[in-house]
UniProtKB/TrEMBL annotation:
Species this chain originates from: Argiope bruennichi
Topological relation to the membrane, as annotated: Multi-pass membrane protein
Gene Ontology molecular function terms on file: ligand-gated monoatomic ion channel activity
Family, similarity comment: Belongs to the glutamate-gated ion channel (TC 1.A.10.1) family.
Stored SMART domains: Lig_chan-Glu_bd
Location in or out of the cell: Cell membrane
Chain ranges of the Ionotropic glutamate receptor L-glutamate and glycine-binding domain: 2-49
Identification of the protein by name: Glutamate receptor ionotropic like protein
One annotated GO biological process: detection of stimulus involved in sensory perception
Chain ranges passing through the membrane: 102-120, 156-182, 348-375
Source organism, top-level taxon: Eukaryota
Cellular component, GO annotation: plasma membrane
Pfam families: Lig_chan, Lig_chan-Glu_bd
Keywords: Cell membrane, Glycoprotein, Ion channel, Ion transport, Ligand-gated ion channel, Membrane, Receptor, Transmembrane, Transmembrane helix, Transport
Length: 384
């Protein structure tokens, strides 16, 4: 008994129609594409030369193929997508800046710079700008005000500021903790336009099945990014054939997208570290799968009647789910998930940088004060 989705499907057809079969594979491992001289490669070429009676390996009928071979009714519809590795977590070296976006940081900075001056002018506070600035800055760290507040109006204003500082501090602390616990992930490639740009920049590759119909879609596409992606695949020879197993495909999945039908990609995805890879949101094209037959094949109607019964009963869908689950049990459970709660030095890199910068600024201020007051004392000595 054959294994795999298509193998079990063929075995079911043979038992139902009571025919025997002998398996043959295409020497070039391709589904079939037309050469310049009109001949075909792969399985379609074998049918054209009448070396085999029927062929099935997720073959889709096209206008060119129907001129040389015949097809049964469709038994499945699927979509062409791509599977790519996730880019990983955002570096934590600047994690102190991640809780807020750039616009929020700019607003907080402007409030901190302008706020003390506005308060001094509006309420005629008898305090220096720098002292009030440090007091407002300290409120973000839950430090109490030491400036005497006279009048109800002043107390209300500073109470509003304390409430603002407390909320900002709470939002910042909780968001930063979430980033350290579950690091922020870089945005993965989600559609073919982004994939084309990544391939053009040289950061990614894109492999597809040798002789895939997707290349025809790329070349005839009105969108330039898709045409560029198709040319890049052909120029670099980024192909795999149907004989490649999951192990060989796993070796190339580093900064590399694998483009194929959704079903095959799900099988591959379930054999990998599931959280480390993602499937594209966008579908390139939908494909109907059918069994390819010789032009003079005698039993097409019998095949169509059985195919209709199999698809209506959901048996083919059952084969798909069972095979995906088998791959998950065989491959997916072998990968151990390692959870580490330790914080490394890289995770606290930004904290140490902030500490060093703070010490550096303090040292500069101290030296400046020493030089300044020494200069003032010398000036006084010269005057007297």
């Amino acid at each position: 008994m054959l294994e795999g989705i298509e193998g079990r499907f063929l075995d079911l057809l043979s038992k139902t129609l009571r025919f025997r079969y002998r398996l043959k594979t295409a020497p070039d491992g391709e589904p079939g594409k037309m050469n310049k001289n009109g001949s075909w490669t792969g399985l379609i070429g074998m049918l054209q030369r009448k070396e085999i009676d029927m062929a099935l390996n997720f073959l889709c009928p096209t206008e060119e193929r129907t001129k040389v071979v015949d097809f049964t009714d469709s038994y499945e519809v699927d979509y062409v997508k791509f599977l790519v590795d996730k880019p990983g977590a955002v570096p934590l070296k600047l994690s102190l800046l991640y809780p807020f976006n750039s616009e929020t940081w700019i607003c907080i900075f402007l409030i901190m710079v302008i706020g003390p001056k506005v308060l001094i002018l509006m309420f005629r506070l008898k305090v220096s700008y720098m002292k009030l600035f440090l007091q407002l800055l300290g409120s973000f760290l839950n430090q109490a005000f030491t400036i005497p507040l006279l009048g109800t109006r002043n107390r209300i204003i500073f109470f509003s500021w304390c409430l603002f500082a407390m909320l900002v501090s709470m939002y910042y602390s909780s968001t930063l903790l979430s980033f350290l616990t579950f690091p922020l992930q870089k945005a993965p490639l989600k559609n073919f336009t982004e994939l084309s740009e990544a391939v053009g920049e040289g950061t990614h590759r894109c492999f597809t099945l040798k002789g895939s119909f997707a290349l025809t879609v790329f070349h005839s596409s009105p969108h330039e990014p898709l045409r560029n992606l198709g040319r890049a695949i052909e120029d670099n020879g980024w192909f795999f054939d149907k004989h490649d197993n999951f192990g060989s495909l796993r070796k190339i999945l580093k900064k590399t997208a694998v483009m194929d039908i959704r079903l095959k990609l799900e099988l591959l995805h379930n054999s990998l570290h599931f959280d480390s890879y993602i499937m594209s949101d966008e579908n390139l094209i939908s494909l109907n799968f059918a069994i390819a037959l010789r032009k003079d094949f005698c039993c097409k109607e019998s095949l169509n009647s059985v195919i209709s019964a199999v698809t209506s009963a959901g048996i083919y869908t059952k084969f798909e789910r069972e095979e995906i689950f088998k791959v998950f049990l065989k491959e997916g459970l072998l990968h151990k998930t390692v959870n580490s709660a330790e914080l490394k030095i890289d995770d606290l890199y930004g904290v140490f940088i902030l500490l060093i910068v703070g010490y550096g600024v303090s040292l500069v201020v101290v030296i400046s004060e020493i030089v300044y007051f020494s200069y003032i004392e010398k000036c006084k000595t010269l005057l007297f």
